[in-house]
Amino acid sequence: MKIKIDIISGFLGAGKTTLIKEMISQKLYNEKVVIIENEFGEVGIDGELIRESGLEIKEINSGCICCSLTQDFEKSIEEIIEKINPGRIIIEPSGVGKLSEIIKACKSERLEDLIQVNMLITVVDVERFCLYISNFGEFFEDQIKNAKTILLSRTNNTGKEEIELVTREIQKINSRGNIVSTPWQELKLNTIISLAEKNTISPINKKVKNIRVVKEKVKKSNSHKVFQSWGLETPRIFTKNKIEDIVRKFDISKEYGNILRAKGIVEIQDNRWIQFNYVPGDIQITEVSPNYNGKVSIIGTGLNKNKLNKIFHDI
Ligand SMILES: Nc1nc2c(ncn2[C@@H]2O[C@H](COP(=O)(O)OP(=O)(O)OP(=O)(O)O)[C@@H](O)[C@H]2O)c(=O)[nH]1
């Protein structure tokens, strides 16, 4: 029997890992599950966050499984099946990966007899929809177009009207997918999962108005040609304020480049550790259990790696 593949796609920082962690904590799967974490940056962080759950994780970093790492992906699937033989594999592709290409990779000659694509979920950050569609439409639209279920994230602080406008725009890109706009906290995730597994089509809300989106043409198709990454592994001890100061600069100055995603786990004083998460306009810092090595990963365009090195080393 072919192994089920659930793909949880979505642009940088949309909430893919959060959703996967939630699915695991709500024990929504009965079978043995393996998670493939694919990070564009060379320093992987999500795998470590999910590993706490005790599930088997396979990390494929430093590129996208949909282009530069397709062969690594195929080999990983074969190894997972041979060594673990799970009932299901959940894939979290990199935020700059194209869902169409990942589906293609899953249906390759080498894998077609082994696996079967099951859920195709794309998480869409409702607050950054316009930013991403305007600047990185080639990647973002592909993720929306090829999903069967689209989950809106960060809906808690967003007005109903804005959610409706974004929903309407999504429907223009993908008229057949189910769009879930209710905050996840208010929904039992198994409702979403059963919807995603059934792939039934939802009614379209006809009342929503159009949103004005200015699209910039992106000619290049390979994420490596468009996005860059910078990473750091360090035993250095930081302070929470310093990390906050650094990350805040990404919003107000372009001297480090156009930073679309920054995340990390670093040590602060008294053997305490923090995890930080940045997407444009939003910084979240939380205390986490002690780790082994500090890690920082940044993705963006036109990154000034010298300045990034300096700011993280000059503390
Ligand atoms: N307020 C709010 N924050 C969210 C929501 N979803 C995710 N976040 C936060 O957004 C940040 C990024 O979430 P992740 O789950 O790591 O996003 P991701 O898509 O896995 O990120 P990458 O894999 O790095 O592209 C974290 O700080 C989350 O807590 C949401 O629905 N509401």
Written overview of the protein:
Belongs to the SIMIBI class G3E GTPase family. ZNG1 subfamily. This is GTP-binding protein. Residues 7-180 form the CobW/HypB/UreG nucleotide-binding domain. A seven-stranded parallel sheet has the order 3-2-4-1-5-6-7. Helix 2 links the parallel strand 2 and strand 3 (56-61). With 315 residues, it is α/β, with parallel strands linked by helices. The radius of gyration is 19 Å and the shape is globular. The protein folds into two domains: 3-198, Rossmann fold, CATH 3.40.50.300; 227-313, CobW-like, C-terminal domain (Hypothetical Protein Yjia, Chain: A,domain 2, 2-Layer Sandwich), CATH 3.30.1220. It has helices spanning 16-25, 46-51, 70-83, 99-106, 129-145, 160-173, 189-198, 223-226, 240-252, 305-313, and strands at 3-10, 33-39, 56-61, 88-92, 115-125, 149-153, 178-180, 228-234, 258-268, 272-279, 282-288, 294-301. Bound molecules: guanosine-5'-triphosphate (GTP). Guanosine-5'-triphosphate is lined by residues 10, 12-18, 46, 95, 153-154, 156, 261, 263, 277, 284.
